């Protein structure tokens, strides 16, 4: 588990970096979230192709690989849609319904061992998400896109643990990128933006950060159980708050800070439990 912590910290810092580059594209340059999502998969596939292990194509015959890739594609599309109008920290706090979904799925379907204390901390983290989203008549509906993204991503996290023995992290990353890019190809081509160097640079940065983050995530899942890894996904919130402030000048409101504190505190405490 100790080896997984630094790997997860780096991975969970890269993913918000990719999403922040996507937000610059969608909110500042008018690029469609559908193009941003598709370009991540297409560019990531091209970057991994030279390093692909032999026999990776055989994984494409497994239906579970396709379900996992669809979950990732839907999750990234939803979070990019949310980031058009929602600040990075708030979107990621709502997105963190994902580790809770992953925790529950790992217990139910993977039969991983849990303790009452770890379950209580998971519920506490969910209360933090509720503080951020604050369901009600005045809820920003765009935040619900981030909740949907987290739900899809939680499914993806658990399936990553479930399928980790099928192939190397490199092969699994390649298949998820290839399938998602193939499925989203028509939508991506229909929303091609006008070419410029800033658009091209941010598109590549978004894809590179996302691909490397998810690749490292798979390495972490090979060495630790999903119920232990899931709380470490909360590291994303630290990077999300920092990037939101540096790049967009956004700082969370009081309720969001309270939610962030609950989410991070519960997640890190759960990760420290034996």
Automatic annotation (TrEMBL):
It is found in: Membrane. The chain crosses the membrane at residues 30-53, 65-83, 89-110, 117-137, 143-163, 170-189, 195-217, 229-248, 254-273. One of its GO terms (cellular component) is membrane. It holds the Pfam family EamA. Its main location: membrane. It is a multi-pass membrane protein. It comes from the Bacteria. The keyword Lipid biosynthesis does not apply. Residues 30-133, 143-266 form the EamA domain. Keywords: Membrane, Transmembrane, Transmembrane helix. Belongs to the drug/metabolite transporter (DMT) superfamily. 10 TMS drug/metabolite exporter (DME) (TC 2.A.7.3) family. This is EamA domain-containing protein. It comes from Sulfitobacter alexandrii.
